[in-house]
Amino acid sequence: MSVIEVNGIRVYAYHGCLSEEGRIGGHYQVDISITGDFGKSERTDKLTDTIDYSRVTAIVKEQMAIRSKLIEHVGRRIFDALKAEWGEGYQWRMRLTKEHPPVAGAVDHVVYVLEG
């Protein structure tokens, strides 16, 4: 088993329960980890035999462009879309970080993680 990580996908998006968040938006970061057997791509050197990083990034950006009130909701969409693209055979981990959420007090970021 091997791991491919696509880390630090930076997105400006408009998620949140507050109406202001829907207007002014905020900074997000998404990290994706894929565990699986990448032996075929190691032998063939073909992109079609592995996970395409640019497609991972595109899926994240597509899903982040759809407004959600909760990061749990958009996180699930990202996770499900990635799994649907490549089917079974991989273990996925998605880490969605919302930077400087508008909460009382100084909070650097909140994180939602899905694995499966």
Account of the protein in words:
The protein has a single domain (2-115), classed as GTP Cyclohydrolase I, domain 2 (2-Layer Sandwich). The protein has a four-stranded antiparallel β-sheet. The chain has four helices and four strands. The longest helix has 16 residues, at 71-86. It has 116 residues and is an alpha+beta fold. Helices cover 34% and strands 34% of the residues. The chain has helices spanning 19-24, 39-44, 53-64, 71-86, and strands at residues 2-13, 26-36, 91-99, 109-115.
**Helix residue percentage:** 25-40%
Shape: elongated
CATH fold field value: GTP Cyclohydrolase I, domain 2
Q: What is the H-and-E element order?
A: EHEHHHEE
Portion in beta strands: 25-35%
**Termini separation (Å)?**
15 Å
Mean pLDDT: 95
Keywords:
4 strands; GTP Cyclohydrolase I, domain 2
Question: What does the secondary structure layout of this molecule look like, with pairings?
Answer:
Blueprint: E1 2-13, H1 19-24, E2 26-36, H2 39-44, H3 53-64, H4 71-86, E3 91-99, E4 109-115
Antiparallel strand pairs: 1-2, 2-3, 3-4
Helix pairs in contact: 3-4
What would you say about this model in short?
Helix content is 34%, strand content 34%. With 116 residues, the chain is α+β, with helices and mostly antiparallel strands.
